[in-house]
Amino acid sequence: FSAWMARRGARVVAVDLSDEQLATARRCQAAYGPVFPLLLADAAQVPLPAGCIDLVVSEHGAAAWCDPEQWVAEAARVLRPSGRLLVVDFAPHDLEFLRDEHAHRRLGFAPDVVNQWLAASGLEPVLFQSLPPEPGSDGKIAVSLWLARDSRALIAAKSTREVA
Fold first, then answer.
1. Kind plus residue range of the DSSP H or E element containing 116
2. Do 117 and 68 touch, CB atoms closer than 8 A?
3. Are 74 and 46 contacting, i.e. CB atoms less than 8 angstroms apart?
4. What confidence category does residue 139 fall into, taking pLDDT thresholds of 50, 70 and 90?
5. In terms of Cα–Cα distance, which of 89, 39, 44, 93 is closest to 65?
6. Contact 147/85 with Cβ under 8 angstroms?
7. Count of H-run helices and E-run strands, the chain
8. Cα 63 → chain centroid
9. pLDDT at 56 over 60
10. Strand partners, 84
11. How do beta strands 53-59 and 38-40 pair?
12. Is the peptide bond before 34 cis (omega within 30 degrees of 0)?
């Protein structure tokens, strides 16, 4: 997703706590471009200033977060007013092998739990959608999408309209 955004002119910064994942990203950049910064950092403590990002995307990262609520709060911190957060991850499932083979700490997320994290961080949940696996695809997992926004700009715009 990061490379897709970068090819369309977006300024992208990718963050991962895994040297292995960043090495894979570097190989992909070398082969397919475009090049953008890859930061070795904990997504719960991103080395970026507050309010500098328009869109934060977590694609199947939540299952490995140590503290998902803290991560969502950090995503909210770096978002600009009216910025968006998109979380793409698994719906609840029972595939235990993912813990060992892919370091998943959690086996999916219920919609209301993620919505609570979003609200606790001052983000407004905008959309939730669950994408079921293809019919007949045994062992596949439903994928969930949560979209939230930082409503600070919306509040400021509303206050301005009320004064006028």
1. helix 111-120
2. yes
3. yes
4. low
5. 44
6. yes
7. 6, 6
8. 11
9. yes
10. 55, 149
11. unpaired
12. yes
Q: Counting beta carbons within 10 angstroms of the beta carbon of residue 76, is it exposed (0 to 12), middle (13 to 18) or buried (19 or more)?
A: buried
Select the highest-mean-pLDDT range: 71-85, 101-115, 126-140. 71-85
**Cβ-based burial of 118 (10 A; exposed 0-12, middle 13-18, buried ≥19):** buried
Buried/exposed code over 92-117 (b: 16+ C-beta within 10 A; e: otherwise) = eeeeeebeeeeebebbbbeeeebbeb
Token digits of residue 127: 């959309």
Paired tokens of 80: 């600009």
Partnered with residue 150 across adjacent β-strands are: 123
Main-chain dihedrals φ then ψ at residue 160, nearest 5 degrees: -65, -40
| Amino acid (one-letter) located at 164 | A
Percent of the chain beyond pLDDT 70? 76
Amino acid type, 135: P
Amino acid at 158: K
Radius of gyration of the chain from Cα atoms?
17
The conformational region for residue 124 under phi > 0 = left, psi -120 to 50 = alpha, else beta, is: beta
The identity of residue 125, as a single letter, is P
CA separation for the pair 164, 161 (Å, rounded): 5
162's tokens? 């009320």
